Amino acid sequence: MLIFDSVLFDKKNQTMTILNGTQGAYAYADIVSCKVLNENKRVHGKGEPFSATVPPGPLPSGMIFEKAVYVGVKVTLKDGHVLGIYTSSKPTRINTDVYRVARNEADHIKRIIDRIIEKNRRRDPSSGS
């Protein structure tokens, strides 16, 4: 079992259990894509995860303050449902130490999910894109 603060990966039962985000257990076989994103703090918890995102790089000139964000992984299932796995438990600002730790964890989780998706595609080539 792979354990993070935000998600558990159970290789034996082929499920991931989200602890911080769209809580619940989800079958590996249902996952079709994932992406690391920053969610705008103002919409966090108000609808579909990652419906309003903030780019990870510098903001355009003229913007005085960087937006506070939640860092995480957006996961899409076969049926179109979108799940959120949040690696930051509190809002943070881009390029802070807290942001970098949360982003690194999200990147690690994404790599694991990408491997799961690839294994699913090898097992059932008709389900891949």
Model description:
21% of the residues lie in helices and 29% in strands. By secondary structure, it is of the alpha+beta class. The chain has one domain. The strands form 2 sheets. A 4-stranded antiparallel sheet has the order 1-2-3-4, with no helix packed on it. Strands 5-6-7 form a 3-stranded antiparallel sheet, covered by helices on one side. A hairpin with a 5-residue loop joins strand 3 and strand 4 (24-27). The longest helix is centred in the last third of the chain and has 27 residues, at 97-123. The relative contact order is 0.20. The mean pLDDT is 89.
Strand order of the largest sheet: 1-2-3-4
Task: Tell me, rounded to a whole number, the average pLDDT.
Answer: 89
Q: How many discrete domains?
A: 1
Structural class determined from secondary elements: alpha+beta
Largest sheet: 4 strands, antiparallel
* SSE pattern: EEEEEEEH
Indicate the proportion of strand residues: 25-35%
Report the helical percentage. Answer: 10-25%
Please count the helical segments: 1
Radius of gyration: 15 Å
Euclidean distance between termini CA atoms? 28 Å
Per DSSP E runs of 2 or more residues, the count of β-strands stands at 7
Shape: globular
Which segments are poorly predicted (pLDDT under 50) over 5 or more consecutive residues? none
